[in-house]
Write a structure and sequence with these properties.
- It is a single chain.
- The protein is an all-alpha fold and 148 residues long.
- 76% of the residues lie in helices and 0% in strands.
- The longest helix is centred in the last third of the chain and has 18 residues.
- The chain is elongated.
- It starts with a helix and ends with a helix.
């Protein structure tokens, strides 16, 4: 095992939460062979530098709280990082349903202040489209729009 790459990867993984695919990508960029990369990744997982579940949990919480993303968008981004479906479901389950709907309602109320519309139908359509672009599911959007 290449000690220089191992040290670089361990430092990279310990600075902030990273998933396996991000560390693998860095190792390949740094010139590691696929065999070296596999060995280093296995070691980092064993030593708990990398934990996809821990990564998915923190990613989901952060993107929801700070970026105001919906579950669908968070799910798609985690899939793009090669996180498995079971791990994603567990991470999304960490988001409280009540908090989720409250955040969506707050986002839509804020958007409503800057929205220009000529009918109730147009207003609902624009709000729906905006919420979908943030990654919220249709059922949650409908529930919140009806309460506004």
């Amino acid at each position: 095992m290449n000690d220089i790459l191992l040290n670089k990867a361990a430092t990279y993984a310990s600075r902030c939460e990273h998933c396996e695919s991000e560390v693998r990508e860095k190792l390949l960029i740094w010139g590691g062979t696929s065999e070296e990369t596999d060995e280093i990744i296995a070691y980092l997982i064993e030593e708990r530098y990398i934990d996809n579940q821990r990564y998915a949990n923190s990613y989901a919480k952060d993107k929801f709280r700070f970026n105001h993303w919906g579950k669908y968008k968070i799910s798609m981004m985690l899939r793009s990082k090669d996180i498995d479906s079971e791990t994603i479901e567990e991470a999304l389950g960490q988001i409280e349903e009540e908090e989720y709907l409250e955040k969506l309602q707050q986002i839509l109320k804020d958007k409503l202040r800057s929205l220009k519309y000529s009918s109730e139908y147009e207003k609902k359509g624009k709000l729906f489209k905006f919420a979908q672009s943030r990654g919220f599911e249709s059922s949650a959007i409908s529930k919140v729009i009806d309460s506004i």
